[in-house]
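Morning - zinc ion inputs below, output right after.
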Amino acid sequence: MAALKLKPGVVTGNALTELFDYCQENECALPAVNVIGSHSTNAALQAAKEAGAPIIIQLSNGGAHFFGGKFLPKEGHEGAIAGAVAGAHYVRAIAEAYGVPVVLHTDHAAKKLLPWIDGMVTAGEAFYEKHGEPLYSSHMLDLSEEPLEENLEICASSLTRLAKIGMTLEIELGVTGGEEDGVDNSDIDDSKLYTQPSEVLQAYETLRPVGAFTVAASFGNTHGVYKPGNVKLTPAILKNSQDAIIAKHGGGPKPVHFVFHGGSGSTAEEIREAVSYGVIKMNIDTDTQWAFCHPIKAYMDDKSDYLQSQIGNPEGDDKPNKKHIDPRGWLHAGEKGMAARLVQAFKDLGAFGKFS
Ligand SMILES: [Zn+2]
């Protein structure tokens, strides 16, 4: 297997397609981590550095808004556009210091968020004019709630624009269960939680002539972590979809780059099977939120007696608590927890050390 030549920084265009092909050939996938600011971004970059692998850093609409600051208005899309642009510039400015190649991506955009996408692509086109590459590697459109024809029609039109500046599009077929970023699909009809291979075939035939794309297919995966046993994970749907395309169009062995949403809470065995059928990206959010939050709770519990006032603790009424209060102490505990959880994700996905 020829080694992949990737530079630290943001991976776009053909280099991104080559990276995903390399993942399929080597049966591994990259974690796609939702970040909300510089702390979670730094944790993600550190994990990738330790794993010796590229990482996918993504912002949801809410995450982009938070990156810019929750103080910005929620109404309209300006706050989330500005936050997404600022986040991308932050990643571009710091990735080289960590020596890490990054796929820069945005998460779910349903129909009502198309103006958000439009604003980011406009910024991407302006960046392309100056630098000859896009700001982001890819965006996601999640039109899985719309009829399939409409979903693919809008995706094709968007991809036409993205392809011109070397960008890839992630689409969604079928609905990921559970709840994330304020979108609650936990009551959805079970049959919608499973993508049909015929739908993947239709997406392939529509989008392949237009540009590079990845497919988030539903095979019983859910956002969030729930008690096991509610929905059955059926990764064979991915294999059947690849086979349906090969049967009609030849090529292969894995004509589609698949994305696994709702990776949190999955077993290593389930992940391995999905990866073997062509998954190149697995989203992880709930598990890293927990990994960031829990060490901070432990810190607060542990230091409780030192966090009641600025002065005065069990060592004396006049002792200052400055060093315990300093957010760098507890935020870094969260960063370390998140980085460690992501290193585990690289191992589960078979990507640890596969890129050096
Ligand atoms: Zn998702």
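Note: The chain has one domain: 9-348.

O.
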